[in-house]
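Supplementary Methods, section 5.1.

A reviewer requested that the exact input to the structure prediction be made available. We therefore reproduce it here, unchanged from the version used in the analyses.
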Amino acid sequence: MISEKAAPYVPAREDGTVAPGQGRGQPQSQAQPQGRAQGRTPPPRRSRDGAQLLVLALGFVMASLDTGIMNVAANDLGARLGLTMSGLTWVVDGYVLAFAALLLLAGSLAKRFGARRIYLLGLAVFTAASLLGAVAPNGAVLVAARFVQGAGAALFMPSSLSLLMHAFPEPARRAKILGIWSAVVSTSVGLAPTIGGVLVGTLGWRSIFLVNLPVGLAGLLLTRRVIAAVPARRSALGGGGHVLGLLALGALSYALIEGPGMGWSAPYVLGAFAVAAAALAGFLIRERTARTPILPVSLFADRGFTAANAVGFLFNFAFYGALFVLGLFLQGARGASPVTAGLQMLPAVLVLPFGNMLYARFGPRVGDRTALTASLALSTAGYVLLFLILAPGLPYWVLAVVLAVANLGGGVSSPALTGVLMAAAGREHADIGSATLNANRQIGSLVGIAGMGAVLTGAGGYQGAAGAFALTAGALALAVVAALTGIRTRT
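The structure derived from this sequence is encoded token-by-token as follows.
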């Protein structure tokens, strides 16, 4: 953890304690970090900050690359493995389902066993699952690998934000770091379609999983070197609540993905909806009555925290649902190759880091509420316009400009949303607060991708893209309302 005053660099143990003889009051000659040679001085603060920022972004970069690449690879996967629209949706949503369902558990694990330890575990699981995906012989094994990838991402995502909060405790400095960190992550999102298109077009779809291996190994090695441990705090895990949440999300996913193909009145689909409703009711009852709820119930009394979670759900519903449709539309309706589609998707995602940097520059001045509502309104206007003008023969430059303007707002929204959440949760609840926000955002992605797939299936294919973008605009408009009514103060 970084201190504002000049002090010896003393990394904590995984349980949060400091080795004997290494207290802050000891002279530097008596307070050498455990396992390091006597007389070795810590790296300069600025270089250490950069190293910490890079390492904590690696996990997000890996997960972001994987998601963005999959949007370009989906069409080729369908052709190579004979996957239907529901099969393609499972390849994308299987990852998101495991991710969303396990995020809250991962937040509790980070709190109980130490954020760095869980971060390392998540990186290891994700990297191993990527190898499984690369050698998958059929769609079933590929979907299984995607589920395991989602579990690994769930472990390292909330832990990385918690480690970031502890590494940069000063609010003003943390706001700048959040902007830079978001820009690094968003740059990977922006480059993902192009990287995916090139990989699929030249080396085949298996290469999109192999690309994770060097990134994951680098993250595992560097994390142990530059990231200090965060104190662990014993807490109950609430296994029953997590099981109910997983059951609710799994049943809902099955119903939304299989419903268009089987028919919405099919017994299996209706049964899945019923199971989802019953599990959700059981989850809510359990949270209201349990001595150790898995959701931070007290934090939801804060309007800003509640609004941030609502906006997070709606934003991810819109953004990732639209990205899923865009990749299929470019290849299916406009006949683009994977490489061309990857290049054509650049304007939709490469503007995200520019939005992040705009937030880093102006967000602290205008406040997160203003930054969030204005950027969401800009995104809403962009997708409304896209709904009105979209057609297979639309000139590409028009499509590119509208998508760039719409998603520039998304680049500002993401760090502003994180700022609202962290201000409401505070350092004490950073683990569970970030896990709750990420869970809501991933549930939004899950429902958004499944919902967009249902719209496309119902419309008979890519002709439903305009309707999907209308749904995107509606979700973003609701997010604007949630931000305006829920966030009262300048954060």
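The two ends are 24 Å apart (CA to CA). These observations are discussed further in the main text.
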